[in-house]
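Quick check before the chapter quiz. The format below is the same one you will see on the exam, so make sure you can read both the input and the output lines.
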Amino acid sequence: MIELRRVLSNTHDVAGHLQRLETELIERDLWPFLRDVYDHLARDMDMVEMQRDLLTGALDIYLSSVANRTNQVMKVLTVLGTIALPAVVISGFYGMNTKGLPGIDSPHGTEIAAGLMLVATLGLLIVLKKFDWF
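Here is the expected output.
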């Protein structure tokens, strides 16, 4: 389309120049034909512009749909990352082998940490559901 527009534009300019040029090389009875060529080139240029606008619109629609799909994927990944965050934080604290955490010295420390992760994750799910994130 770009190449066709370039060729039509140059040819349109030449036809316009020939139409206005008064020389003995172009006889007067050919002037209506030059006007006809000029009109056809103008119509073709308008059609190329219309097709270019249609192609631009189609490209915009395609890029918009790709962006919407990407946004949906990012939303799902964000929700999954947010749901996993409490368990990661709690397991990180209990994995540091310090004595200040509750239940670290208990024989049921693993169950306490897992329960705390479960409660925090369920609490977060309830909050996310309340905000209608999923």
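If your answer matched, good. The first helix runs from residue 2 to 20.
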